[in-house]
Amino acid sequence: MKCYFYVWLVSVLPGKLICKEGNSGPTHESLKAVFDLQPFRPAENLTNPTITNISFTLYAVLGVAQLLSTFLWLRLVGYWHNEFLVWDPEECDGVTKISLPVKELWSPDIIVYDVDDDVSQACPYVYVNHTGHIRWDRMLRLVSACNLEIFSFPFDVQNCTFTFGSYMVSPALTFKEMSANSRRYLEASGEWELMDILGETSILQFGVDEWDIITFWVVIRRRPVLYVVNLLIPSSFLMLIDILSFYLPPHSVDRASFKMTLILGYTVFLLIMNDLLPSTANGTPLIGIYFSVCLALMVISLLETVIITNVLHHSSMKYQEIPKWVKVIILKHIANMICYRWPKEAPLPPRKAPEDKPESTNSNSGPWKESELQEQWCHVGYVLDFLLFRIYLLLISCYALVIITMWCIWISQS
Fold first, then answer.
1. Which domain holds residue 281?
2. Residue 53 to residues 76, 133, 180: CA-CA distances in angstroms?
3. Which compartments is it annotated to reside in (predicted)?
4. Domain contains 355
5. Quick one: 290 and 191 in the same domain?
6. 1, part of any domain
7. Grouped pLDDT means (10 residues each) for the chain, 414 residues
8. Phi, psi of 115 (to 5 degrees)
């Protein structure tokens, strides 16, 4: 049967399509003979392989889901040679290219791997050159699944893989040319920026069958301006306000209420901005840890205010003597360490009244003593407030330095 078919094929198609005078291009009769051979590979000698060359242009990244499910508009161009579609332009009124229905011609079995969904806008025509080379443009809307590395969000770089396979396939353009073409379309559009397109060819073997595989790595980087403006800068402003709140009088109850209001506002801010953060089971982004630590620092700041308020109001219930170890550690050593300046009008330490004094003299020393103890407890509270404030500043400075250093390292590496 193969021999009979080959003889019939040669008799029908002598090598070139027939063009008649008055026709712009090959005749319908000669093309009809090619259409009848649509199920068969277009090679006069079946031992000659039909190689398909492919390339694509990345137009846009339309969205990112939990596993970097990217909606990509791809331009898949398949080039292959149809030995039956050859004609002489001089005999065909100078026609060098025609379009034919793709369903009437043989098409290669190009398979796209690593794809969850393929919502394609099919192009019904192919473009045929007079040499028999065919170009097939297809606009593909692919939903690819790649592992989402979000730890460095919003300064993250993602690497998505696309794999094309066929029996005989090779790239039509170099990977640098594909990257340059795609970068022109993605240069000023969307949230993502194309960094590079890499690739390699390999052979996949299934028993005695061998498939050519082309693997593309699309490296894209997120544009962080939106998240820096909407997340990092407002959060930094709220932390700055929390630091400045330490300059409120520590003996005033307004400081505690102000800090509680600030924490409430920061919590509402996190709830509103939660939709902007990527969610995935692979890990937590560093910016999420940053927000959590900022909230924890605000809570620590509130606890510090509660402690200072308790110390400053210690004498409101009972005017107790300050323990000796408190005077030595806090009023002497810690005060000198943090360079605490004592007010000029600070009262002297209380003195015991002589035992031989009459009771009338001791009765007048009560208010004076209560005022003196209150002043001393106030000094203890101020010293602790100065100390805790500097420790708080040190924690925030070290934390900010670590975060900025890590992000700078990732940016330089990307």
1. 226-349+369-413
2. 10, 11, 18
3. Postsynaptic cell membrane
4. no
5. no
6. no
7. 41 64 78 86 81 80 69 66 86 87 85 68 82 82 75 82 78 80 73 84 72 84 84 88 83 78 90 75 76 88 82 60 70 71 49 44 56 71 81 85 79 65
8. -130, 130
